[in-house]
Amino acid sequence: MGAAKDCCGLSPAGNSEPCSHFVSLGTLGAIPAAALDPNITALGEIPQPPIMGNVDPSKIDEIRRTVYVGNLNSQTTTADQLLEFFKQVGEVKFVRMAGDETQPTRFAFVEFADQNSVPRALAFNGVMFGDRPLKINHSNNAIVKPPEMTPQAAAKELEEVMKRVREAQSFISAAIEPGWLHSTSICNDFLGCF
Prior knowledge:
- The relative contact order is 0.14.
- By secondary structure, the chain is of the alpha+beta class.
- Strand 1 (22-24) and strand 2 form a beta hairpin.
- The chain is 29% helix and 19% strand.
- It has two domains: 22-138, RRM (RNA recognition motif) domain (Alpha-Beta Plaits); 151-191, no CATH class.
- The strands form three sheets. A four-stranded antiparallel sheet has the order 4-5-3-8.
- The chain has six helices and eight strands; from the N terminus they run E-E-H-E-H-E-E-H-E-E-E-H-H-H.
- Residues 65-141 form the RRM domain.
């Protein structure tokens, strides 16, 4: 049998030197110490994969800032946990959980604020996250985000919500003071006074 490797988690028996290659994150596991260095822009000059298919040119930068994270425990992993975990390598803009929640594993997409965070995130590949090793790769697509509202659309939505709040307040007041309801237009519009 060959000599035991002096590597974190594979140290020969009796070796009590601390491992400097990985940093413990409590229950989440350990990550490569190099991934935490903000000055590292490319670990081993990780090349960008080619963009596949017909891609909207406005999405290329988003794709280049996004990683795929697989092998996540469906029952215990949340988007907030991933956000906290990946904030250590760079500013995270979005996290989107994906996959079937009823299956044992799911996947997610993590979009960073800049492309320099991606190689550091890729260094997490194989690192234990809870009870499973992460599978991290470059993403082939951007995260589908909810559409942004124009100020006019936001104002209209707020106006509609406030109208429903006022209606609810009126119904509550009517329940407290029954005679008050007959003197309002809500009585005619919604209840039909009797």
